[in-house]
Structures are given as C-alpha cells and as structure tokens.
Design goal:
Length: 193
C-alpha cells in the first residue's frame, strides 16, 4: 500500500463498456463531474462568507449533498474510464468566486445564485435523461437512476433557494440570467474539452 494506506487497485466494477455509446457516456459523465465539482466550489465560497450566519446550516446541508454527488461522479469516471475536463482548475476558481461573490450580496444573493445554478443543472439533467432514454433505458438503467436522483436533489436546492428569498436579491433577474449564461457556457465547454 502507498502512503496513506489507500490501495492503488481501482475497485472492480459491474460496468460493462461493451455496447455502450462511449462518446455520449463520456460527454455525460465528464460534464456532470465538472458540474458537481463546480457546485462544490460554489457552496465552499458561500460557506466562506456566510458559514457562521443563520443561513450557514442550510448552505452546509445542500453542500453535503453536492459532496455526495461529486463522490459518485468520481466513481463513475473510473468505472466508465472517462477523463475529466481539462477545465477543472478554472472551475475550481470560478466556482469559489461565484459562491463567495453571490454570498457577499447577503443571504438573498447566495440563494439567487443557488436558484440560478440548480435550475440550469436540473434542466441539463433532464436533457441527459431524455438522451439516455432514447439510447437504451435498460442499458443505462443505473446511470439513469443516479441522474434522476441528483436532478431531484438539485430541484430541492432550487426550491430551498426560493423559500429563502432568492427573488428578493438585488437585480435578481439580471443576476439569475448572467449566472445561467455562465452555466450554459460551462456545460458546453466541459462536455467537449
């Protein structure tokens, strides 16, 4: 065993790569991994600013779910032999800056960011679900279950944001539109690079 006691042997997996549409699956897993990575960085930025405020426990609860999502996509990257996007270092910084920047606007700003991001991500997950259903719902059953569950979690985060006054953030519609345009660009780039 190497330092830290972690085995270098990658866990055996039930995923059979035969017969899958590798380019589609690579694109889906790569972008979802990048998205969950970015979401983790957004919540880290929000916690850095608002962690000790009254909304801190709510942000932490959502972040904990995002950590679980990222862990699962890390596993799927190995199981399906997908390389991560080369943009992860950029998403590391951009995600934290977005999270901290929105939190500097206060609780409402942080929640507006959450609503914008989670709406974009749940819409993106819905698109992936449609793609996998068209490909072969039985072949991609496990991946479909994961994406559907994560989509439902993102919708829950979206609703939490609305319940915590996201729409009362300064320039809410402008902020939401700008963040969602950034999400679309991030999705486009992370699928391909």
């Amino acid at each position: 065993l190497p330092a830290g006691g972690v085995s270098l042997r990658l866990c055996s997996t039930r995923v059979t790569l035969e017969g899958i549409n590798k380019p589609v699956i690579d694109r889906i897993i790569r972008v979802d991994h990048a998205g969950e990575y970015g979401a983790n960085r957004i919540y880290a930025g929000q916690m850095a600013v608002l962690g000790r405020s009254s909304v801190g426990p709510i942000i932490q609860q959502m972040w904990n779910q995002e950590k679980d999502h990222l862990k699962k996509f890390n596993e799927l990257m190995v199981a399906y032999r997908v390389r991560p996007t080369v943009l992860l270092p950029f998403w590391n910084v951009a995600g934290f800056v977005l999270g901290a920047g929105s939190a500097l606007l206060g609780k409402k700003g942080a929640m507006a960011c959450t609503v914008a991001v989670e709406e974009s991500i749940s819409d993106h997950y819905n698109s992936q679900i449609r793609t996998l259903m068209e490909e072969d719902p039985e072949k991609y059953k496990e991946l479909l279950q994961i994406i559907k569950q994560f989509r439902d979690d993102e919708r829950e985060h979206h609703d939490i944001g609305l319940e915590h006054d996201a729409e009362a953030a300064p320039a809410y519609s402008v902020l939401k539109t700008a963040i969602q345009l950034g999400c679309k660009a991030a999705i486009f780039l992370s699928e391909r690079i």
